[in-house]
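Hi U.,

Before I forget, here's the chain from the pilot set. I'm dumping it here mostly so it's searchable later in email.
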Amino acid sequence: MASAKLQAATKAAEGEDLAMDMSSMIDLVFLLLIFFMVSSHLIIITVDKNVKPPTAKNARVAENGSGRIVVNIYDDGTILDVNSEELPTQEAITDYVDTRRLTFEDSGIKIPRLHLRADKNVDTRVIKKVVQAAGEAGVNEVIFGSFVVEKD
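Structure:
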């Protein structure tokens, strides 16, 4: 009896085309799309538009943006963290980098790196001060931010 009902349901009436309900397939595609959007992570680096980094012929676009401790240096020597809070002394820079390093290490990132975004007109002594403070905090890898230009 059940097979007779199944056969009757699968047979199309004369002149009718068989049709498939696609709504469940569309739901599944949207669920997969949402799953992959939520489970993936994006490379997000906060960029301060007031810092104008130098250009470099050998610069490369970053492949991995995780574990970066961003420090911005303006052309007048002002040093700011990623939240635009000023870091006036070397001790303040060391404390900031150390706090961020510990946060990254707690989240599973083994080797945090200093992402230094210095203005192209900044004095190199200020850059040296930030790099030394990061070294005191246990961060030994430094990434210097620059613009990518076409090679001649």
